[in-house]
Design goal:
Blueprint (H helix, E strand, L loop, with lengths): L6 E10 L2 E10 L4 E5 L6 H8 L7 E6 L7 E4 L11 H12 L3 H14 L15 H13 L5 E5 L7 H18 L2 E6 L2 H7 L2 E5 L6 E6 L12 H14 L2 H12 L1
Parallel strand pairs: 3-7, 3-8, 5-6, 6-7
Antiparallel strand pairs: 1-2, 1-4, 8-9
Helix pairs in contact: 2-3, 2-4, 3-4
Length: 255
């Protein structure tokens, strides 16, 4: 797979009708994981959709290594797998669209399913898989397109806490292997802190960059148990104005 691409959002403006949804300037280095964090409905997902070419900006540009969004692939919260195709055949379909010759597809699909921890489940239909397993298939199918930028729109939001933690670890494992540039949308501050090189805090709609938080030692083992993690979490919640969670956090730490 190709290594990650540089991303440059320059004066990117997105609107629905007369309403401005987002206005962003941002540069992302190749192979970096950047998390977009902000209030519900602020326009985080809209930014990703514009990058993927699913929405037409009203101004500015979204450049991937100086080109368009064709090198991007998007992972949604809903897996959108083809229910009549097995896990392997879902991945093979993406390989077919990429132009991979038929004799190579099976082996490449099985290798991608192995990378996401689905050995032994290649012939299962999506309906026979758990939510976490379906997201693994979706990730394998997305990687089959060899994206240089992976756009992830709250991909783990519907999963239970344990499965979500497993998927976060899996994403890091896969990222370490492929070094794809990742832009990840979440509402979860802890998830942002566990995944990101940088966290982009966005204002309420229209989404503008309020602040960028750089993680000094990103994805360090046991990071969530370090005092720095709690300090960063408090700092981000304060910046986002989440006073209810701040009170709960302060009470827990004091007890």
């Amino acid at each position: 797979m190709s290594t990650g691409a540089a991303v440059r959002l320059h004066g990117l403006r997105i609107a629905y009708g007369e309403s401005l949804t987002a206005e962003v300037d941002l540069e992302v280095a190749p192979g970096e994981i950047v998390v977009l964090l902000g209030p519900s409905g602020c326009g985080k997902s809209t930014i990703l959709r514009a990058m993927a070419g699913l929405l037409e900006p009203v101004g500015g540009t979204a450049e991937i290594d100086g080109g368009s969004g064709e090198q991007c692939a998007m992972v949604f919260q809903e897996d959108a797998l083809l229910p009549w195709r097995s896990a392997r055949k879902n991945v093979e379909f993406a390989l077919k669209l990429r132009g991979v010759p038929r004799p190579r597809r099976r082996a490449e699909a099985l290798d991608l399913l192995h990378q996401v921890g689905l050995d032994g489940f290649a012939e299962h239909l999506p309906g026979a898989l758990s939510g976490g397993m379906r997201q693994r298939v979706q990730l394998a199918r997305t990687l089959a397109t060899e994206p240089r930028v992976l756009l992830m729109d709250e991909p783990f939001g519907a999963l239970d806490a344990q499965t979500r933690a497993d998927m976060q670890r899996l994403l890091i494992t896969v990222w370490q292997q492929h070094k794809t540039t990742v832009l990840f949308v979440t509402h979860d501050v802890d998830e942002a802190l566990l995944l990101a090189d940088r966290i982009v805090l966005l204002t309420p709609r229209p989404a503008r960059i309020q602040r960028i938080v750089t993680i000094d030692n990103p994805r360090a083992p046991g990071a969530r148990f370090e005092p720095e993690f709690a300090r960063r979490r408090y700092e981000i919640l304060a910046a986002l104005g989440d006073t209810a969670e701040l009170v709960a956090t302060t009470t827990e730490e004091a007890s």
